[in-house]
Protein 1
Amino acid sequence: MKKKSGLRYLRYRNLTQELAKYGYEYTPKKAIVAYGMIVLLAAILGLLYKLQLPYIAAIGMIGIVFLPMVILQAMKGRYHTIMFSLANNYMEQFLYSFKRSGTVLNALLETVTIFDEGIFHEVLVKAIEHIQYVTDSEDPEREALNIIGEFFHCERIDAMHSFVIDAQRRGGDANNSISLLAKNRTMWAERVMSLQKEFQIVKRNIMIALVATMLICILPLYLLGGDLDISSIPLCQISAVVLIGICMLIYVKADKKLCRSWIEKEVDSTGIGKKYLQVRDYDEVKEAKSSQKMAIIPTILFIGAFVCFKNIAILVTGVVVVLFFLNQHKIGHKLAKKKVTREIEKQFPNWLMEVALLLQTDNVQMAIRKSIESAPEVLVYALEELIDQLEENPNGIEPYHRFLKEYRNPDVQSAMKMLFALSSGNAGDVTKQVEELIDRNNAMMDKAEKLEQEDKIAGMKVYILLPSLLASLKLMVDMALLLVVFLQNLTFGM
């Protein structure tokens, strides 16, 4: 799917329509105020940097280009925060109501009294009416919950809905399982709120870094005046506009990264499945031969250079480069395996939760087979292998024992042993064992999602460092100009 260009939002109509999706009414009056603030900001920066009118106009134009994205991301951020709060409150109330009543309809009737206004109230009413009045449906409860699921697009809510539908059909006491799901929801909500606070801190630090950069870069214009005034030099003016423009770009890019849905699962576009296959199918002998072929040309070049110039530095550099080429297959394999290992740590608990919920109605092998449809990309190939092995040896422990064995993850191995115990009927009370599996998985998911949060925060810290690099480049330009002006004055003075 082709991404929409941010430039299309320069058109008032397009921006208005997009903002309306997030519940914000963008009126002409608000647009005039917003663009007026951009003009004011450009004028202030122009005065501070002693810019001439054309350069002030350039800053204004850059600001006008970025303004629609800033407004859109601000409204998106507010919308996603509201949707998270709504989803969290809905899950909490629905699980509590279902635990009390034991039926989907009664749980929805109780829940709708809590959410008594707004769009979500209308969605709940529509779902309730679908159960009460639709007569030509084979599964009105599931269809009704799908209406709510389509409103949120949240995997956790979909999983909860699947669980309660199965629990209602199965009958019996599901209170303990519901309590574990409620505990999982609480842990998830706490993690998200913690990540929201971390993102706010990162955003604040980025703003401080950007403001500090622009203030520091003003100093050379005011510390030395008179004959050493460089503010009117075209290169100084242009570099100031470039500095301010890049600072704006950094803010917009960082804001876009920080603006995310807290309930929708992010699409994995990293090709981690291919990385898994790369690690699984790694042939060291074959890859070593490939590395040796790659090292031939650098070896010839460095030997020739050393013979010509008789320079020891060339020899040392050549040895390092050739050794790198000879071992690049090992380095690449280790990096790929490390990435796959971390992704398995993050994604395995999500898959295990899906299996645990499927075990409410299916046996272990059927639950594993069904789970592959929604399994994370990093696990798909391993699960296909597991299913094939289970078909050949349905009663043995070997297929479970071999699952992702090469990654040596104790949590994975422990969970697979429990699944084998359930499949062989040696786990005692199945319901109790499934609840224990869910409880253990809650702890694994908490650990995995904290790892994912660490990755997100680490990825954002580069935006805090970029302004420092930018300030260094701008100051280098200004110092060079000061030196040129000083030497010119010195020459004329002589």
Protein 2
Amino acid sequence: MNPRNLVIVGLLLAGLVSLLFIVLPAGPGDFPVEEEFSSYSSNSKERRSSNEGSARNGSRNGTGSNSGRNSTSGSSRTVEAGDSTLGDPGGRRASGGAGQGSGNRRNGDSASDSATGGRGSSSNENSSRGSRNGRGVPPSFDRDDSTSGSESQGSVRVSGTIWAENQPQPLSGSSGSLTVGINGRSKTVNVSNGAFVFDADSDAMVRFFSAMIDSKEARVIAPNMPIIAKMASSVKVFIRYDALATLNLISAETGESLNNVEVVRLQDFHRSTLEHPGWPMATDYVISEQTGPVSLDGRLGMIGSAVVLHARAAGHEWKRITVDLIEGGEREVLLRPSGSVFLDVLGDTERQDIKLRFRAPESFGPPFMEIPVAGGTNRLIEGVMPGVWVATLESGHWNLNPTIYEEITFEVSLGGETTLTLEVPSDDEDRADLGGTVFIPDGWYLDDFSLRIRPTGAGSDPLNDTVVVQAIDMDAESIPGGDLFVWGPVKVKIGSYGVLVLPVGYGDLFEVTEEGFYDAHIELPYPVDIQVTTVLQGGGGQLASPGLVRWAPSRPAGVPGAGAVPVPATSEGVFDFQVPVGNVILSVSDPAYVPKHQQVTVNEDGANQFEIELEPAMGMILLLDEDGTSIPWDLTWHPVVNADGHEGKVLTRGRTGSGYRVLVSETGEYTITLPYMDGFYPVEPFNIFCQPETILETLIPLEAE
């Protein structure tokens, strides 16, 4: 061939290669991405929007309903009959905070939400997944997350493969979808041949919730924590089939499945024990979906075998349930129609110590509902059953003689909306200074510590009036024998306070008067190394092997504790750790042994070797099951256990995992009577024969009503 022709051919080939590099994408081809977005909570500063605000505003302005509203105020105590159509609750409520609610039904959606475009869902964004609530990362406010990540500044490609639990290779022949969370918004992406890919900002936090693979629902079991997008170029997502818990809400009147479902997991333990959650707070996990059943997946936080949830559907009551998110299964819950209460709060709405509580008339014990009113002006409280109720504004724990500022009796009608007007009084309670010192002797290896100042006594409010002072905020001085830290003064209410050094848990009680108190001195005792050995009772020194031993220093009467410090075993039955000189309480709580608590005296110059004798447990673990679905024991369910023909007694009882453990003192037969369990038919009493050193697991079948 002519050399000139070779040159021409070479130039043509070089041009073609250059053109291919320009035209073709740099990375692998995209999988189809299903841009299904919805919002979920991420932290206390987040505000979420939804389409339900316009629906509620329409009805409140008279366009959504032709009927009136019940109205109750603190001044007139009048009630006008009527009802109102409830709006669509499918969108996610916003969290509590200042500047919330100006006549709309949502919990604090602000006008800026619609302006930013990245905070919640607009009227055309509703999907079958509804809105999600996670925790940990604030949402993106400067762009619309529903646009392609490849067009965003600093975006990266997140890709990975789907693996089934205990399988040695990815599901390369399977397809479906994967639900993920990206900076406060959830998104459904396609899975093709076991692989997925999507775009996200490089610094975005990505969470994996659940999957639908080959038309089968599955729960994501790993990763179970957020991943930074720029570190997620090749993620292995492990799923577990038949372990995803689902919840189906059923009408108690028609027997049909209900739509517009809301599920809340409260992070306040006390509120989680009440029948009504009030409204979701910033730290609570929430799922809102247009249709049921609802998948109880990673949007509700870390899984557990006995997770307390509150669930409702539009126009129906709230129901508190306990679910097993580890074993999964299907749950059906019956709901009755309800009404709602529109709360109009006036006065000092920034007070942190004021609670709104609902109770039935003449009722005692915990309230039906409790919610802080701080930062709110008006709210809609849905899912309140028809009838007469008493609303109070209180400060202090409900069981510690709280101060009641206002009390109103009102009535809720079926399908109606009652307006309740309450005024929060100004906080004019006297406060005084509290300050002092903390001495930390040499030998304590505390990288950091804190001082917890908690009020005690009747009428106190530990939840709102507890003050924590960090060591970094104290003035430190090295003196012979250790370090002296000067703290305070801090402003506290008049009264008594328990002051603890954490994490050691050592402290004292101090009284604060109108003149203040500046000499609250705590001297941490010198640390000593001790050894604890656990042996079997009557076993001739044979070692017992509990997983943990816990310890706590003995405290003066009236000083609230901070929980015992857990210590793992150094070797089988042997535990080595450090405690302060003085009286120390040792405890063992292990499923295989009868719980044991023992006080020992630790000396500065002694051997400080102690032995705890443990008795192998004898008793039962009661497990509840409904058609193959594990039913965890609710906080309020307690069986009655009676000995038959002998003197055996119950030594200890309580929930453990999804079951209920009962340890007894003697061999023999025991009659078990189950309590009333809401949503299930009664179970006839039955007998269990307990044998020495044996924990019998008994599966109890339940039938839903």
Protein 3
Amino acid sequence: MWEKGFPAELKFYWLHFDWQKQPEQHGLHQALLHLPQHTRVGDPACIIALFRQFLSEQENIHRSVALACILLLILQQLAAPALHEDVVDSPGVDLAWKANQLIRTQYHLALSTSTLAKTRHCNADYLGRVYRRVFCLTLTEALHRQRVLMAEKLLIGDKLPLTEVARQCGFNNVGYFRQIFRKHTGLTPASWKRRYCREHINS
């Protein structure tokens, strides 16, 4: 019997750790984070970046407190309530989600606040306000984050020249692409590729 497999772009990450219950005499209360058994995170790009940082730090010979800090940040992201597309309490929220869908699927095109507003037949300032209220980001910031996320995937998976990576992610200028990439990742595209190009395998 044929069974439908996982989507080709789906990736799995595993972290193995021990949870030690602190003695009551330390004056520590129970964990403040409530972790659901399964959830939809509000910022997948942030989770992916934290996982990569954890795996990179794990390879260091001298272990540091950084691993525990990164793990705590991951758990915090998982515990944070995520926005859901089906929660529509005003016309503005629905408009923001539709703009977000365009950013996620058409990031490689010449998108801007004005072009997004034009496709949704609304005022650019109004769209910017409702989007920021829903996603806590400006439209430009969201577009840059999506483009950088896709650039990260291309830098890892394909041996493309930097100009082609930039072009496929919606950047016409390589210098501007480097500037935005470094702003969002803290690394140049070349440095990022050297750090994360090798596959991390959990066994």
Protein 4
Amino acid sequence: MKDPTGSSLPPPPAYNESQIPATSAAANPNPTSYYQSEETRDFIPDDFKYSVTVTSCDSRVRRWFMRKVYTLLSCQLLSSFAFCFWVSRSPKIQDFIINHQWFFFLAAIAGILSCVWLSVAPRANDYAEEYTGLTHETQDVPADADANLETKKPWYYLSYRGQLLLLAFFTLCQAYTLSMVTLVYDSRTILSALFVTGTVVVGITAMAVSDRFETSVTASNTIYYWLNLALWLLIGIGLSSIFFGMNSKVDLLYSWLGAAVFSVYLFIDTQLIFRKVYPDEEIRCAMMLYLDIINLFLYILRILGRNRED
């Protein structure tokens, strides 16, 4: 081999992977390592996993998030309907609910307040950088980080354990108010509504997680805007019916409108929780889906109850 001046040069040494320095191998990892099995990949740091939305995280984080959301949701639904079943089988509890109607309104107000608290409570990461000095570039956690966060966080901040306890309290309040349906509707109508609601929820969830029915975030926000307007319309009609009543045809139309609104709510919420939320917000997401399903069940129950009366 010759250089441009014409002098002879020795041939290059034979390639040997064992001769590559360890620092060089670390600085230039094998690009095919990305395609290794999922069990052996752990290249995403924890601060990245929790500082971006779920859709931007590793597939393991997304599956872990989905599992936690639907585990919490299943516990909420099972405990609520188990409480309703207990009320339907216990005349003493039924007498207590009938004779202490003020407790129903107290549970409803407590449920609304706990729902609002869970919705507005800030995440710990929202205050970590400001009050602890911990950033993505920080290598060592400051010694007084926990103390700073403890003294500077707002009064309505909730730890993870506090969120779980408040979610349990919210579910208990909702279960108590939901148990009123056992005093109004017969068991056959309730079981029919449960079956229809379960079928609708499974179908909507399957559509929402499918790429075939994926909607853009902009379109979802637009739909959400109109859903909120429809929700306020439902609230207004419901409040007016308390004072002025509602005939059977208007009531049936109102029930179908409510079922349609919360069906779309469930579809949009299922898509948005995997795009706009963070991996540590599974409690808030479970509560949101729980409200969608419970309201959908109540409107379907109202439709079936009206059809049986007619």
